[in-house]
Design goal:
Helix content is about 90%, strand content about 0%. The chain has about 150 residues and is mainly α. The chain starts with a helix and ends with a helix.
């Protein structure tokens, strides 16, 4: 009810009941209104107790809590899956980079070892040439001439 409606009711009450009885009538109306309100509240409380509304409310609250926990658990699992997927993606990327680095190192090693093999094969050839010269002519070899 708005202020205008209350004002209209007050004017009608003043005209119908009169100015002398209006305060007493308002007081009696408020007392009766309070009693009716109290009886309705008591009745509602008694009905709730008989029907077990507290248990129903508790069950509803527990179901809400359980559903929120399930939703939280599901969100946590999804976050863990996303983290695992991201971690696996990072691991895959790292393994790709590691393989690329290993391939480069192997190529460099092959290059170095290839040069060393080439050097060894040429020095082996020189040694073979010297040993063949020593074996073929002991008198012409300066090392053999020096020995008595």
């Amino acid at each position: 009810m708005g202020i205008a409606e209350l004002f209209v009711i007050a004017i009608v009450g003043l005209l119908v009941i009169g100015p002398e009885k209006l305060p007493e009538t308002i007081k009696n109306c408020l007392v009766w209104f309070g009693r009716i309100k109290r009886v309705l509240n008591d009745t509602r409380t008694e009905l709730e107790q008989q029907l077990g509304v507290d248990d129903i409310r508790r069950d509803i609250h527990n179901e809400e809590v359980m559903s929120s926990l399930k939703a939280l658990k599901k969100a946590t699992e999804e976050a863990e899956k996303a983290t695992l997927l991201a971690g696996n993606a990072v691991k895959d990327e790292l393994s790709g980079v590691t393989q690329a680095i290993q391939a480069e190192v192997e190529q460099e090693d092959e290059g170095l070892f290839g040069e060393q093999r080439a050097n060894h094969s040429s020095s082996d050839t020189i040694e073979e040439d010297q040993s063949s010269v020593e074996a073929s002519s002991p008198e012409t070899n300066p090392i053999n001439k020096a020995s008595p």
